[in-house]
Amino acid sequence: MITKQNLFFVSNKKAFTLIEVLISITILVLIFTFLYSQFNLAQISTKKTTTIEKSSTKRAKIIELLYSDLMTAQKVVPTTRKNYDRFIEAFSTQNSLYGMENPYIKYVVVADDETNTLLRIEGKRKDIGLQNANSEFYADKIVEKITYFKVIASDEYIELFLQAEDMKDIYFKFKRVVK
User: Fold this and answer.
1) Alpha helices in the chain (DSSP H)
2) Per-residue pLDDT at 10
3) Phi, psi angles (nearest 5°) of residue 146
4) Contact 123, 132 (CB under 8 A)
5) How far apart, in whole angstroms, are the C-alpha atoms of residue 25 and residue 162?
6) Among candidates 154, 172, 134, which has minimal Cα distance to 73?
């Protein structure tokens, strides 16, 4: 039998009701959902920033390499094609990636199925390349997916245009320095 004294003890119990627990869980789920979406957004932003930074660094290294090679070149002779120069004939320069003294450098655009790749070939002889079996050389892949590559060389200036799908276009013009 329920008495007034028993009602007093039941109403003074310190416990959560089912509704209060469900509301707390719902609020907790909403907070975790918000935090997860913010964390995911931060990850995506970091990936994009890293990609942009790598692309900028790669572009800067390519510009520095081309500039160093062409700046001290004795003679630069590009061959002309529709959208890109097929290759720049071997030229002597003072810039070597492999510790050679006054190496010959050749830039070649190799056309695969759907992509064009710019290679830098460095060797000790002017006739460097795959066609010469006696030629010792080093080949480096510079840029892939080239859409436009053009070098314009005169006695005083060299202009270079390089366009690839995965990086910002490169253009520079400089006055030649031949020692």
Assistant:
1) 4-11, 18-71
2) 54
3) -75, 135
4) no
5) 58
6) 154
In Å, how far from its chain's centre is CA 84? 21
Q: How far apart are CA 122 and CA 108, in angstroms?
A: 11
- The tokens for 21 are 């627990």
Of 176, 174, 97, 75, the closest CA to residue 141 belongs to 97
Query: What tokens does 29 get?
Result: 């789920």
Distance CA 108, CA 86 (A): 6
Largest CA distance in the chain: 114
| Gap between the Cα atoms of 170 and 177, Å rounded | 21
| Residue that has been written with the tokens 């690839």 in this structure | 164
Residue type, 40: N
Long-range pairs for 112-115 at CB < 8 Å and ≥24 separation?
115/144, 115/145, 115/146
Could you identify the residue written with the tokens 């310190």?
Answer: 14
Contacts of 80 (CB under 8 A, 6+ apart): 86
Task: Give average pLDDT by consecutive 10-residue segment, the chain, 179 residues.
Answer: 56 76 95 94 90 81 82 71 66 81 84 80 77 73 85 81 85 73
Instruction: Record the tokens describing residue 2, joined without a space.
Output: 């329920």
Domain boundaries, the chain: 56-175
